[in-house]
Amino acid sequence: MEMLPLMQYLFAGIVAVLVGFFFLFWRKTKTKTKNGIPPKKVENEKRSSVKTDDQDGNYDVIIVGAGVAGSALAYTLGKDGRRVRVIERDLSEPDRIVGELLQPGGYLKLVELDLEDCVEEIDAQRVNGYALFKDGRNTKVAYPLEQFDSDVAGRSFHNGRFIQRLRGKAASLPNVLLEEGTVKSLLEENGSVKGVLYKTKTCEEIKVYAPLTIVCDGCFSNLRRSLCSPKVDVPSCFVGLVLENCELPYPNHGHVILADPSPILFYPISSTEVRCLVDVPGEKVPSVANGEMAKYLKTVVAPQLPPEIQIPFLATVEKGNMRSMPNKSMPAAPYPTPGALLMGDAFNMRHPLTGGGMTVALSDIAVLKNLLKPLRDLNDTSSLCKYLESFYTLRKPVASTINTLAGALYKVFCASPDQAMKEMREACFDYLSLGGAFSNGPVALLSGLNPRPLSLVCHFFAVAIYGVGRLLIPFPSPKRIWIGARLISGASNIIFPIIRAEGIRQMFFPATVPAYYRAPPVN
């Protein structure tokens, strides 16, 4: 390529500088609307390498992250009169393959938080229950919604559309500020969090302060290590596809195929699209680039699907639009820190098989809202610690039930060479197929409608005992008795480690748990 003459370089440089100055001036004098969210101007900004925001004292709460948890929390606290500042790395519409199914229990929390309209106008689909498929057989289990209003059901949708609706609703409040920026660290003093240091899109570093900082920056959080002891497990990955114009065997139901080696999910995310999530055990998936993924989906997955789904599934695989995401599990293990709180996937994750993540997050927000409501002045550090001390215990019934069920069901639904675990899987399918109380109880737990840990344990071992009964009737041979004993042992080995990680006292004896928070010493 020929070199430009020197004068042309100089002319181009002068033009670039002039355009740059014009753009900076235009940004300062004009208010833009981005992705339907009106940004709010920060007055009297001072330029420096690291500056302290001149609106210190104007906000009660800083929220890091504006996903489902952060946006819903911002609206909830803002509606209660709190002055809220939300810092989100990217306010454009997210594009994720998970966080697309909201259980009925989560929808009820949306109603409680006055956010139910956020599932409107995004082509969200009602979900009334599940259909299970195994070895050519299928059964349908409905959510037990008889005692609720007709509008109560699950909802499935595009995750990004839902988040943008939540962000828009939060930003509509005059006391809530949403802004783009990357939070680099928490600001601590005498063991208490006072605010955050964040970098703007123009690479300016700013310190902002508030009495309470809530970290909601998602499953890839870079702040959680200072507030909890993260023990992240990655049992599998989801490979996501979107099937267009696919008619599911059971409309308005999630579909779970108990395949080998692990489950496959289908559910509608719009009136014309169906999400498919193929679970691949382990932390690695076949390569998309060299065709291994397409081969795996065609030869291993497709033959195990119901005939109605196979053709649109294969057509989607041919298009090659496949994405993957690790399925993370992380028990809540906080370091209770005055002035700070963790929420959402930054704090607690479970296998997404049961779609319970948003229900847990919204439930946590409802708990926090009720805890903080009597406290009008968040600058009273001693009182703030007192009101927050029960949060981690009060959230446990819902969170631990959904977390434990997600981990246990995933292990039961995965194929196993162990004959005892094969019997457990078969027993689970048959138990749910019985209908009535046998399906209503487990589905009420899964949907977040009955968040009772003791009920979960009872139903889980009822399935195991049912499996043993199937083995012993009509002829309890020594081999069958031995398999039954291993089945009970295997069931115990599945559920008890999950319960232990969640916290036995917190799950079953919350009143015995001592307070976590203590106010920092006064200098």
From TrEMBL:
Protein keywords: FAD, Flavoprotein, Membrane, Monooxygenase, Oxidoreductase, Transmembrane, Transmembrane helix
Transmembrane segments: 6-26
GO biological process: response to hormone; sterol biosynthetic process
Main location: membrane
Assigned EC number: 1.14.14.17
GO CC annotation: endoplasmic reticulum; membrane
Family: Belongs to the squalene monooxygenase family.
Name this protein carries in UniProt: Squalene monooxygenase
Organism this protein belongs to: Zostera marina (Eelgrass)
